[in-house]
Amino acid sequence: MVNIRPVDETTDKRFTKDRERSRRFLESSLDEQTISSNVIVPLVGGHDKRQRQLYLNDILRLISNNEKKIFGISFEGFHAYGPSTENIDINSLKSFIEETRTKLIDYKNLLFTMPLLWRPDNVIHGIDLGFDLFSGAYVAYVSDRFIILTFRYNDKICSNTIRTEYNINSKEYANGKQSLLSDCKCYSCKNYTQAYIYHLIQTKELLGRTLITVHNLYHYHAFF
Asked: pLDDT tens digits for 114-164?
């Protein structure tokens, strides 16, 4: 449990209240946990380095006294959550992340994560920054918008000049006789055409979204 207001306009007073409440929530949770429990600690403070450092100092004291109960750290407060997190560039947060990891260097077994719609390029950068756990919600999110993932495996860091996706709900695919992605070996691409899946979407058949999700899951996982 954590009290967060991620917008940059949040006042210093508001940040202080959020930090104090979050610390109390965490202390209460740790008091109630058994040694066998695994707690992921939220690290708040948004883009305010001073507030984030103040909360980290509180966290360090708690970790030293509850090391067996704390499983990892979750970086919180950088965004408003939801769909907008797809557009975040994880490298823009590099200085915050590296500074925190340096402070926690003595705790070798801590897991690091962040709530985010993890685009494949952000996953690659996230691994470089030391993240261990990634949400798989990105595929479900893009599939719900009828987006077909097409990024190339030999371009591990996606380029802005390369088409990485398209919307199958566009009329240009109404008569498409090819698969969702050429050379893809997923079930959807081996058995169905763009036109068929476009038709399923127009008639609001559940199968349409299912076939899109099957392709996107296959393609996303194959990237790694």
From this structure: 988 899 889 999 999 999 999 889 999 999 999 999 987 665 554 554 578
Kindly state the helix (H) or strand (E) to which residue 74 belongs, with its residue range: strand 70-75
d(CA 180, CA 189): 6
User: Is residue 179 classed as helix, strand or coil in its secondary structure?
Assistant: coil
DSSP for 117-172 reads: ---HHHHHHHHHTT--B---HHHHHHHHTTEEE---TT-SS--TTS--EEETTSGG
Does the reported pTM lie above 0.85?
A: no
Beta bridge partners of 129: none
DSSP 183: T
With a CB cutoff of 8 Å and minimum separation 6, the contacts of 215 are 148, 149, 180, 181, 184, 186, 188, 189
Q: Are strands 147-149 and 70-75 parallel, antiparallel or unpaired?
A: unpaired
List of residues 6+ apart from 115 with CB closer than 8 A: 74, 76, 81, 85, 135
